[in-house]
Amino acid sequence: MLHFSNFKITGIVLLLMLGLLFALPNFMREETRLGMPGFLPSGALNLGLDLQGGSHLLLSVDTDTVQRERLEDLTSDIRLALRGERIGYSGLSRVGGDGNRGVSVTISDAGDMEKAAAVLQGLAQPVSGSVLTSFEQRADLAVENTSGQTFALRATDDAIAARNTRTVQQSIEIIRRRVDELGTTEPTIQRQGERRILVQVPGLDNPERLKALLGQTAKLNFHLVDQTVSGYAVAEGKRPPAGSRLIYTDTEPAVPYVIRRRAMVSGERLVDASVGFDPQTNAPEVNFRFDTLGGRKFGEVTQANVGRPFAIVLDDKVISAPIIQTAILGGSGRITGNFSVEEANDLAILLRAGALPAPMSILEERTVGPGLGADSVAAGRIALIVGFLAVIGFMVVSYSLFGVFANVALIANLLLIMAVLSGLQATLTLPGIAGIVLTVGMAVDANVLIFERIREELAAGKNPIIAIDLGYSRALSTIFDANVTTLLAAIILFQLGSGPIRGFAVTLAIGIVTSVFTAFVLTRLLVSLWLRRKGKPEALPI
Amino acid sequence: MRTLKLVPVETSIGFIRYRFIAMLVSSILVIASMAAFLANGLNFGIDFRGGTLIEASAESPVDLAGLRGRLGALDLGDLQIQEFGKDTDVLIRIAEKTGATDASNDLSAVERVRGELARDFEIRRVEIVGPQVSAELIQTGVLAVLAAIASMLIYIWFRFEWQFSVGAVLALVHDVALTIGLFALLQLDFNLSILAAVLTIVGYSMNDTVVVYDRVRENLRKYKKMDLAELLNIAINETLSRTVMTSVTTMLALLALYILGGEVIRGFTFAMIWGVIIGTYSSIFVASPLLMLLGVKRDWSGAQVE
Question: For a 10 Å CB count at each end of chain B, is N or C smaller?
Fold first, then answer.
């Protein structure tokens, strides 16, 4: 147990040097760190949101909306297809709990059944984006003759899963664009579970603004206003004309408008938006530009409707409804409303980033201000230093020189934890600091086990060198078993954890591994080197 | 140099002799914990109950009654305000509205509180947990504790014998029960970090128990004919010095955290301190006597010596 080949010693020393190298950036100032040559590790510990301040938002994407829209499209596809083949039908409707499951349709003439089945089957398409693992392409629709002359068309699970994945991915892309516009450093945006998105933005001074930006779908459309009927009349119960519908402004009190269902131009055709100021009133406004196709379409519609109002509709609310003064041919325009500069700026951001494919809701928010974060870092640092000194002092008092060996191992342990955390670019959270402090307390355990064993063997009358040897070898299986159990707990904690708790689990787990190494290998090496110098000691300083 | 020895090298305290008293004390404590849990329930934090938590800090000491009046006027529903660490800091808790399905209510509540407090407070922390998330956190939390205990059960079974495994796990259940009992009794905020503490306690207490069991196993091989009670007693006494040393160093680190680590993790540290005390007690007075009760295999001649 006490023999170390030079090869082994070199290995241990190299490992420690490597640890030092990776831990070093944490003790440097930012400028020094960034100025280091590229081959040296320069990453310092990542501070978690709870230490540097920032917002953590868990969003849920309402994918049902997309499924519903898909079924709406399907309903009209069925109508067109059956009409096209002159097949009589009735009862075309969406079915299932919330009209979300599928579409059912009843064929009028039993003789048309075969043809209808073929037509309906023809609506099915291969699931896009599915992995081609089988020769058989999976269809996105299941057509089933449920009873008599009724067909049920149901989106297949594959299709739903593929669509949800696409919706969430698109949402992530758009969220990323919106968050990037805020100019914060290193936001994390990732999918979590089937339909959730986790957004973590460090060092944000105004989380409300982030939420406002993420909470809006930002679907912009331009509709002609239906002037055949007054908005107020429809609001009071009059039926809107076919092809038109009632919507309101987002002002207080809300003003009703009747607009054409069909959009003149959809917001998807926007290519740019920016804040501008009205040359006359100096009020903030949003300037936008269409792509070629959108610009042409906008030009045509405005040319044909000079003198009539159109509505600019954002998320189903009218922002403004200006009168078309002249044909707008250049492909660009402006939105005026009662905006503040910031509102206009945010709207421009939203329009530039594009609309979310589905509405989102916020499930969880955790925001820590920079003040609290800094206080936590300071408190954590002091607690670590004091706890460390207390343990070090106690070890020396209890085990004298061997206590010093244990303390060297403890310091090496802290360096290694820091090095592993920096090297992995893991995130240090406040519970993570607690994990390190706790590790300091528990790390000496392995040495305590060994030293106590050595004392026992000495008490049993063994000669010092044999006592040391037996102490290390007999304590090994205990150290192993005892630490595996704690490691198991740490792994389960990691599985359970969200952000900060994970940070705790990570530091705890790293601490267990490094402390076993430093206690068992490093102190043994120190003891062995000490013995080499001492020759055969009569008694041990333990 | 003379070294400090909290426990003399040679001790022979008759721990096993007190096993009936210890069992009685432990049983009473576990029953009391269950009673406290059933009577009071746990004071679940927003992680598990849903709702909003806002930490705010003012320049001067906060007039809690005045603040209560100001925020009460906002009509936010069930509202709790308490001092947090210092008299200039407050913690505001707003309960989830019944029947809520997402966090939209909480979001608007936060906005209103922010508006009201903007003048004289710095908002230091906002946590909103919607009903979906809190339900999941309860589920994963319970699951995690069970999984932790189950994995210990299997590991110890694998490394020792089933009697050891059952004994260790009963000791763990004892520790978890007493921790939950304390939180139910004192009605301390039980949140995600306390759950993390419970899991860490599971790990720590197991660590302690394993050290004693390891020595028991060793002695079972060494003293084949010795009376089990005496054998267990020797094992506990032999490891006592280590048990005390490790508890003391861990406690030193925890006390530093508790006193200096700031208000945010005080609950966590408190739970851990309690857990270290209980875990140390249980490995001596619960886990080992249980081996007496369960009986252990005496013939280890076939077993490998490690």
Answer: N
